Amino acid sequence: MQSIVANLIVSSIEECLPFYLRLGFEKSVGVPHPPDAGEGALLGFVILKHGAVELMMQTRDSIAADVAGLEKDAYRTALYVRVDSLAPIRSALEGWPRVVPERTTFYGAREIIVRDPAGNVLSFAAHES
Length: 129
Fold this sequence. Notes:
The protein is of the alpha/beta class. The protein has helices at 13-22, 60-66, 87-92; strands spanning 7-10, 26-32, 43-50, 53-59, 78-82, 98-104, 109-115, 121-127.
């Protein structure tokens, strides 16, 4: 294996995209749904990049059309994101609701835990040396 990239399954990419752009991601690929819908169509799939980090998002409608058998699944993802410092995350998410107040865990990680607009949980963690 060379890498694992999370694919967040969401109802609307347009609803979620501003949250991830706020965190410093950039959209590197955008595919409308259906793929031949053309300019101005709603997105069905995107690839976001933040430096070497990659994240994908796909709409439930798009994945149901793409992978038979998943159309009835309603699921979310939880991401554990290790960062060098929480300061830029804290700044980018100022005013964004927290799942729990910022905390330090028993294993020494300082964490900020939030949900994106689709309900996916993101735990940003800075580990003390």
